[in-house]
Amino acid sequence: MPPACLLMGTLWLLLAALNPAWGSNNTLPLVMWHGMGDSCCNPLSMGAIKKMVEEDLPGVYVLSLMIGKTIAQDTENGFFLDVNTQVSMACEQLAQDPKLKGGYNAMGFSQGGQFLRAVAQRCPSPPMKTLISVGGQHQGVYGLPRCPGETSHICDWIRKMLNSGAYRDLVQKHLVQAQYWHDPLNEDLYRTHSLFLADVNQERMVNESYKKNLQSLEKFVMVKFLQDSVVDPVDSEWFGFYKPGQGTETETLQESALYKEDRLGLAAMEKAGKLVFLASEGDHLQFSREWFDAKLLPYLR
Ligand SMILES: *[C@@H]1O[C@H](CO)[C@@H](O)[C@H](O)[C@H]1NC(C)=O
Ligand SMILES: *[C@@H]1O[C@H](CO)[C@@H](O)[C@H](O)[C@H]1NC(C)=O
Question: For this UniProt entry, which segments traverse the membrane (predicted)?
Answer without folding.
Answer: none
